[in-house]
Amino acid sequence: MVALSERYFGDLEAFDEANQNDSFFGNTFVVPSSLSLDSLKNNKKFIIVGRKGSGKTSVQMHLAERVKKQGYFTHHFRFFYDLRTDDYADIAKTQNEVSFASVTNQRSLFLHYDFRDIWERVFFQKIANTLIYEGHNNKFTDFISPSSSLLSNIFEGISKTLTVKIKPQMGPIAAEVGIDLTKLDKPDELSLKVYNRISRELFSRHCIQYQMYFFIDELVFSRLDAKEDEITLRAAMVRDIVRTVWELNSYSYKNKMEFHFICSMRPEVRNMINDLDSESGKYLDGKDVELNWIIRSSKNRPLIVDVLMRKVEYSFHKKTPFHNFFAEKVSFGSRSYSVEQFLRENTWGRPRDVVRLLIAIQKKSPNAEIISETEIKAGLDEYSRMSLKELVDELGVTFGHQVIETLRYGVRKKNYKSIEEFWTAISTTKLNVNKERFLKELFELGFIGGHVPSQGRYFWSHRGENYLKPDHQVLIHPGLWNELSIRSS
Predict the structure, then answer these.
(1) φ and ψ at 191, to 5 degrees?
(2) C-alpha dihedral sign at 240, 243, 249, 253
(3) pLDDT at 147
(4) Which of 239, 264, 366, 457 allows an S-S link to 56, with CB 3.0 to 4.6 Å?
C-alpha cells in the first residue's frame, strides 16, 4: 500500500488536469448523461451553463480531445485568465463614443457598450494563429497577420477610434473581396467593421477545408475587486463574446464550414446579462445545455459516485480497487451514511466537490494508506473551508465583499424555522442588498436549502428545485457546517 500523499486525485482546475495529467483526466472523466456532446455544434447548442466546479471546462477539454482524433484543430480562449488588468483599460478606450453624460444608470451604460467587432477580430486572430501553428498559411492568415510576440496585448493594433493599421502587402488580398485600399482616405488604415468584413470573406473562401472547435471558457467576473462601472464593462464584454460566438456560428453554418464556437458560463453571469438586456433571449435562450451529475448511471448510482470511484481507482499508477480503499460507511452520531448518501448530503453534486474532498482528506492524513471514516472526518474542516470560500467567491459576482462577514458571523445554527428567521439572523450584520434577490442567490448556489420535517423532505437547487417555498424551513448546507462552526449546534 502507498501513502495518500503519493497519490494524485485530480486538480481543482480541470484545464490544468487535462493539460498536465492527460492520462488521468481521460481515465476519470465521466460524461454527464444530461448532455449529448454531439449537440455542441454551430447549428445546435453552443453555451454550456453550470455553477463553478460543475464540469464546464472538463466537458470542453473532453470534447476537444475527442474532436482532435477526428481531425479537428482546437483552440481554448479563457476570458478570465487571458485578459490582463491593462486589457480592460485598453478595450474601454474604444467606447469613447458612448455619451456618459446621457447615460443615467448602469443598465443604460451596459446597453450602450458594443464590443462585438473587437471580439470578432480577436477570435479571427486566434484562429489564424492556430492555423499557422499547425503549418497552414493562406490569404486569410496573411491578412490577419497575427502578432507573434508573447508580450502583445490581445487588443493590440486596435485604435481608440476602432481602426486597424494594415500593411501594404494586404492590398492585393483585400482587392480579392472588392476592397481597393488605395481609394480609402487612409490607405494604411481600415475601420474595424470593414476589416472584419474582409476577414469574414477570406475566412469563408480560404478556410473551408479546415475543421475547428474554438472554445471560450471562464466567462466570469466578480464584484469583489471592481467598481460598479467596471462590473458593467466586464458584463458587457461577456455579453458581446456570446453574441459574437452566436454570429460566427451562424456564419460558419451558412457557409458550410466545420468551425464550431463553444462557450461556457455560470448561471449567475447569464442572469445578470438577462437582467440588463431584455434582448438577450435572442442569443441565450434555447442555445444552452446544463450539466447534471446526480442523475443515476446505467449502474443505478449517481454519476457523482462514478466520479469519486474513478478518481480513487486511477490515483496511483497501479489501479486501486475502490471498495478495498474507501470507507463503506460514515457515521455522525446515531446516523450512518453510505458513500452515495454521504456525497448526496455533503456535496453539491459536482465533480470539483469530489476532488476538493479527496484533496482535503489527503492534506490532513498524508500518511494514511486508505480512506476510512477517520480520514474522511479529519478532512471535513478543510473541505468545508474550501467550499465556503468558493461559494463566497460566486456570491461576490453579484453582491461584493460584504457577503463574507454577513454569512460567517450571521449564521449560528444548521436549521431555521422559516425564511424570516434566517433573514433576521444574517441581516443583523451590515447588509445592504435586496432581500429576495439575495435569498434567491443563496438558494441557487446551494448555501441554503428547503426542509419540511413533517414529510422528511429536502429541497436543493442542485437537485432540481427552482425556489424556496414559504412553508419551508431553511437548512444550511451540511458541507459548510464545519467552517461555520455549527455541526454540533
Answers:
(1) -65, 150
(2) negative
(3) 54
(4) 264
At position 217, the amino acid (one-letter code) is D
CB 132 within 8 A of CB 75: no
Give 415's strand partners.
475
Cell of 415: 436549521
Strands in 457-459's sheet, in edge-to-edge order, are 415-416, 473-476, 448-452, 457-459
Is residue 64 within 8 Å of residue 213, measured between CB atoms?
A: yes
According to DSSP, the residues that pair with 452 across neighbouring strands are 457
What's the pLDDT score for residue 100? 45
| 50 contacts 91 by C-beta, under 8 angstroms | no
Q: Which residues contact 209 (CB under 8 A, 6 or more apart)?
A: none
Specify the pTM.
0.86
| Beta strand pairing call for 189-191 and 163-165 | antiparallel
Nearest to 332 by CA among 368, 385, 376: 376
Which parts of the chain register pLDDT below 70?
34, 82-107, 109, 146-157, 159-161, 187, 221-229, 397, 400-401, 428-430, 489
Inter-residue contact 392 to 404 (CB < 8 Å)? yes
Could you give the percent of the chain with pLDDT greater than 90? 52
